[in-house]
Every structure is written in C-alpha cells, then in structure tokens.
Amino acid sequence: MRKDEGAATTSAELRAHNLARLLRAVHDNAGQLTRAELTRQLSLARGTATVLVRELAGRELIEELSSPAGARADAMVPRGRGRPTGVPSAHPRGPVALAIDLRDDSFTVAAFELTGRSAVLDRHERRAGSGTGMLADVAARLAIRRHEFGDRVVGIGVAVPSPVRGGTMVQPTLADWQGIDVTGLLGATAATAADGGCPVLAGNDATLAGLAEARRGVLRGFSVALHLHVATGIGGVLLAGGQPVTGAHGSAGEFGHMPLAGGHEPCRCGSTGCWELDAGARGLLRAAGLVEQGDRMLAAEEVIAAAATDPGCGQALAKVAGALGRGIGALVNAQDPEVVGLSGLAAEVYQASPDAVRTAYLAALMRFRRDAPPALLPSTLGDLGALTGASELVFDAFLTPRGLAAWRIPAQKTA
C-alpha cells in the first residue's frame, strides 16, 4: 500500500523526507508519543526534530498537546489548545480523509483525522432501484461533506464489495456495478472550484478491514496474520509485516469463493459450493428460513440476537458457526498465520457461539497444529474496520514528500 519515492539526494529532499517520516510516525502511533519518543524512534537529532515539529505545526499539520489524545472517538470534538508541551497530535485544522464503506444494500461515510480519530457522518440504506442510483446518492453526500471540510480533505478512500483493478469493480455484489470505475465516478464529485479535486482511492472492503486491524486493531504487531471479514459474502487477506498480500492482480483474499464447507450449490460468482453460501449473511438467512431483502447484514444480526430464544435462529447460528469454523481451519492449514482476525459477521457469530466455531475449527486443522492453534481474535474496530482501512489508503498517499507538498499553506495572520 505504501510506495517508496526513492532516496533523498539534496538537503531540500532530505528535509521533505524527514517531515514525511515524522508525520507518518505521529499517524502510525495515533498521537500517543512525545516529541522525545518520536525523536528516538526515528533516530533524529534533537535539534532537527524540534525544527521539523515547528514546521509541521506552522503548516497546521500537527499541534503539540499536554497529554496524548485519544486515537479514536465517536465524534471529532473540539479539544483544548493549551500551551504546547510535547505530544505531537492532529491539528484541529489539519488533514482529513473521507472514507466510504460501500455495500450492496447501504453505504456509510466517515471522516478521519491524522491520528485516527473518526466521526461517522452519514449512513443510508439503498432505496428501491439500481446500484448506480445508490452511487449517485454517495456522490451527493460526498459533495456535501467535501464542502463542509473544504481544503482539509486530502483524499477519499472507498471500501467496495468487489475485487478492484485500477479503481474498477471487476466482480461486485450488484450486477449493475460491474465494470464501474468507482474512483473516476466519485472523483468528479471530489472536485471543487478552489482546488480541482483530491485523490480518490478504492480497495476491497475485506482487504481494507484487515489492513485496519493490522494498523490500529487486534492484529497490530503480528508478523503474519490472517483476517476474515464476513458480510453478505466472505473476504479476507493475509498480512505479512502489517501489509496485505494482494496477489498478482490485486484481487487475492476471495476466500468466500473457495469450496471450504462441502456444499455443491451454484454461486453468483460462477463457481459452485462456495464457502459464503454456508457461512455468509446469505447462508445465515437461508438457514433461518428468511427471505433476503433490505439490509442483509442487519437481518443476519437480528438472527444472531434471537438465537438464544428462538429455536430456528439457534439452529441456523449453529449451522453457520460450524461452516465458519471448518473454513477457518482449512485456511490456517494453507496459510500458516500466527493469529486469525475476525470482523463483521465472523466476529458476531464467533462471539455468539464460540464453542461451535472452535470445535469445527480444531477438527479441520492438521494434527500437528492442534496443540497450539492460532488464536481467533474478534475485531476491536467493529463497524469502523473497512472505513478505517479506506482512510489508511488516503494517508498512505498523503504522508509522502509529494503528498505533503500539495498541502495548502495557512494564510498569514495580519495585525
């Protein structure tokens, strides 16, 4: 996800490189480290770090607080300015990444500050009609939020329910999204008369949920981790050193379209016996005897909530929990991760029926793995997972010498 812009060869390039390194460290550590700790982490001279912090603060990219700021909150509330005492954090007029979690039946828009603090701004279910009509609704909300945050917006990240190639959805969950360049479509919305627009970047929702957990959640610090995200379908990603292994064409991790649960039914993808038919939201609703309509994720969550008192829902949950566990075991045999992260319905099914998932998981493991099986770790980011990953796409592009060069210079105050 990150790109190396090459080694610095002049003093100006070295300065720009160090500014980006320092701002990246503030971002990666969620505004929790003091200036002295950042100086040591980056092996900078103390005087150099002081000059860099002063420049970043002057450009309204950071401010120094008296204590570490919370990395995440339900809203971006105003914070006391106070006298700077050494904890670089997000500036109240600093960069913002807009993030979109696009699903086939709903979409969510959120804003993220430099240190990961976030605010969910909009959530809408798809009205009756086409998926392209929902994209028009997304564009309309983006236009409003783009105007609200103005030149603070440094990019827009979009998590989509499809493999992505060059911003185009190649096998989405809705037929009328096939072949749509979502970055180009929404990029026109991002443009303003003042600056002509900002970058729009797209990625698969499950891959981005895994990236988020590696950067800010339960998978942080593990060298090799597997992440599974279950929504209408099932996706995931193998993470090595915190970075997604995305494959030759950027579309690895379509685990839901592997025959991991022993079924034989045809799938919408063109294959048969796909895992998502038994362990995704569709599988849960079908097992509960419910018709798919409206927000399938919400309906699946209602089945899970009712499982303790409704026998039909309880049987459906048990069936899906077994299918989920068997598939996880098969993937662990193939990928050999240290841990397995779970988000979306995968986390909810596991938390509602941990014994059923673990029994099926252990039974599917090769014998030599059973003494110390990789732990199953539910997400700590919840519904913010794909959104957080989409925001990381934006900050990965911005936190470079080239990205910082495009940041607007604050207007000078006059007496």
Structural features:
single chain; alpha/beta; five-stranded mixed sheet; 14 helices; 14 strands; globular
Give an account of the 3D structure.
The chain is of the alpha/beta class and 415 residues long. It is built from 14 helices and 14 strands. The protein has helices at residues 11-28, 35-41, 46-58, 131-149, 182-190, 205-216, 276-279, 281-287, 296-306, 311-335, 345-352, 354-364, 385-398, 401-405, and strands spanning 62-65, 87-90, 96-102, 106-113, 118-125, 153-160, 164-165, 168-169, 200-204, 224-230, 234-240, 243-245, 339-344, 375-378. A five-stranded mixed sheet has the order 5-4-3-6-9, with helices on both faces. The protein has a five-stranded mixed sheet with strand order 12-11-10-13-14, with helices on both faces. Helix 1 (11-28) crosses helix 3, helix 2 packs across helix 3 (46-58) and helix 8 (281-287) packs antiparallel against helix 10 (311-335). The chain is globular and about 65 Å long. It starts with 10 loop residues before the first helix and ends in a 10-residue tail after the last helix. Mean pLDDT is 89; it is low at 71-85.
